[in-house]
């Protein structure tokens, strides 16, 4: 496998793009927002342990425990959301594409579009 | 022309088989992100792109995505892989015109990265949400490795297989 100069350029461009997108400092978040199909469905306070069953095309069981959110169970075909594990930092998200669901963590101090509920 | 079309038929079948075999590798259990895969079928597409050109590679890519979607992955994944494949094949086609600067590995990495971008863009439209782009950096980093892998394989194929 011989790499030419252009290959190194491509590889570095890809890596630089990725790093730039990763750069924004991740703060600890305190609110998880559940979006489905672009609509905000529900927000969770991360300091309160809860369990929420979301039914869309498929079902996601969302668990808030010890300041972290995870999807513990789902009946979607790929289970990527379950494999994603726990998230607790602002900007992190878990998504379930088959169910069009995104759970996103935000910080109530920096974001203004927070609606408690 | 007829011989090429027939060979493309065989290669389409090969691409589908490779995609099916690839599903047995549980890469998503290691890196839990939607759309993570080795992309070995890209070897076949890139091979056709180099040997026969875009007019043959594009239909093979579309046929492969549609059939794999119907057989295994479902309509949602079908849309993602079609969108990813579209970006990837166009990008690779352009880069292949500058053979002096880019080797097959580089072209393959660009293809893998563009495939990731295309997938995320499609997901963005389907979920009506821009937040899904937060997955892109990880997808890009992984595409460097998968792209180099499929590129190396394709380089061997080009050298050893006469069509």
Keywords summarizing the entry:
heterodimer, A: 117 residues, alpha+beta, mini-chromosome maintenance (MCM) complex, domain 2, four-stranded antiparallel beta sheet, three-stranded antiparallel beta sheet, 2 helices, B: 163 residues, mainly alpha, Arp2/3 complex 21 kDa subunit ARPC3
Describe the structure.
The complex is a heterodimer of chains A (117) and B (163). With 117 residues, chain A is α+β, with helices and mostly antiparallel strands. Chain A has two helices and seven strands, in the order αβββββαββ. Chain A is globular and about 55 Å long. Chain B is mainly α. The longest helix of chain B has 43 residues, at 54-96. The radius of gyration of chain B is 15 Å and the shape is globular. Chain A binds chain B through residues 1-11, 14-15, 17-19, 21-22, 35, 37-39, 77-78, 80, 83-85, 91-93, 95, 97-98, 100, 102, 104, and chain B through 28-29, 32-34, 74, 76, 80, 95, 98, 100-103, 105-107, 109-110, 113, 123, 126-129, 131-138, 140-141, 143-144, 148, 151-152, 155.
Please specify the SSE layout and strand pairing.
The complex is a heterodimer of chains A (117) and B (163).
Chain A: H1 5-22, E1 31-36, E2 39-45, E3 50-55, E4 59-65, E5 68-74, H2 80-83, E6 93-96, E7 101-106
Antiparallel strand pairs in A: 1-2, 1-7, 3-4, 4-5, 6-7
Chain B: H1 2-22, H2 27-30, H3 41-51, H4 54-96, H5 104-127, H6 136-160
Helix pairs in contact in B: 1-3, 1-4, 3-4, 3-6, 4-5, 5-6
Task: Describe the structure in brief.
The complex is a heterodimer of chains A (117) and B (163). Chain A is 19% helix and 37% strand. With 117 residues, chain A is of the alpha+beta class.
